[in-house]
Amino acid sequence: MRYERFALVLGFLLALSALLFFGWLAEEMMEGDTARFDSTITSAVHEHATARLTTAMKALTMLGSSVVMTPLAILTLALCYFRREFHALKTLAATFGGALLLEFSLKLAFHRPRPAPFFDLPTPATFSFPSGHALFSFCFFAGLAALLSPRLASQKAKLGLWSIAIALILGIGLSRIYLGVHYPSDVLAGYAAAIVWVATVKFVNELHLKNVEGEWSAAGFTLK
């Protein structure tokens, strides 16, 4: 019980910190104060460009695109449905659906123009702030890792799962900076928004489970 409370408080503090960070970053971006930071980080990343690395970054950015993420999300939800794991289905559907709505709303709210891409890539049609790739990949891979890790027996397997999820999330975000289709502040804002949303879904989920357990206990049943 103490561990659960500690985890809940820690998650709340993390979400609050991410929300405050997003608000501060958005204000700095609107005032143009992130320009130097964005330019410095983008230049430092692009200095390491190679043909092989460019190919890898294009693959990562494709992985995080709606062309790939949407079918993967639908497949994941379908698997939950056919396995009759309805709680996981509702949790992931809320996570994925909320991430899309959040991305769409925030991009329209801030309408930041895109930077000029590198490697003769076309400029994406959507606005730049925050990065949708960073936001949705965080929600997708962190959501899957949170769902699957409790089912793994060994700590090594859990650590491996989370390591892969984190590597993919960071790799996709880095690819957006490397290819020049996002400012670094866009990617950081995407991660911050994702942390807030994932923590919100987690909190509501835990609250719902506690209420259900309380109702069953009052009726003389025990949930296991």
What does this structure look like?
It is built from eight helices and no strands. The chain has about 220 residues and is mainly alpha-helical. It has a domain at about 50-205. The longest helix is centred in the C-terminal third of the chain and has 35 residues, at about 185-220. It is globular. Mean pLDDT is about 85; it is low at about 210-224.
Shape: globular
Main β-sheet description: none
Strand share of the residues?
Answer: under 5%
As a whole number of angstroms, the C-alpha radius of gyration is 19 Å
DSSP strand count: 0
Give the uncertain stretches in residue-range form: 212-224
* Overall pLDDT level: 87
Chain-wise SSE layout:
Elements: H1 2-30, H2 35-46, H3 51-63, H4 66-82, H5 86-110, H6 132-148, H7 155-178, H8 184-218
Helix pairs in contact: 1-8, 3-7, 4-5, 5-6, 5-8, 6-7, 6-8
Quick synopsis:
The chain has 224 residues and is mainly α. The protein has eight helices and no strands. The chain has a domain at 51-206.
